[in-house]
Design a protein that fits this description.
The protein contains one helix and three strands. The protein has 100 residues and is of the alpha+beta class. This is Endostatin domain-containing protein.
């Protein structure tokens, strides 16, 4: 995440899901999914996001496609700048031909 972008207001439910990289590479020794989620939380707060951020990470206790609640799986996925990456969370996990 980059903290130089405008602050984001607290909303009951965002209209998009953000897929954003952390500011620095991680060693891989993050003490599991909880440690990765904590890094996401901390950097999201530094960038003035107030919604929940979770690591895009799977493990023996968490399936990657289950990171987002069922009710949000049809929500568009955008990057930090608000540019659409996927039409929905579910689309990340479906094989589709990309049209140029």
């Amino acid at each position: 995440m980059h903290s130089g972008f405008p602050s984001h207001s607290l909303q009951a439910k965002d209209l998009v899901l953000h897929l954003i990289a952390l500011n620095t590479p991680m060693s891989g020794n993050m003490r599991g999914v909880r440690g990765a989620d904590l890094a996401c939380y901390q950097q999201a707060r530094e960038a003035n996001f107030r919604t929940t951020f979770r690591a895009f990470l799977s493990s023996h206790v968490q399936d990657l496609n289950k990171v987002v609640h069922n009710g949000d799986r049809d929500t568009p996925v955008v990057n930090l700048r608000g540019e659409r990456l996927f039409d929905s969370w579910s689309d990340i996990f479906e094989q589709k031909q990309i049209n140029d």
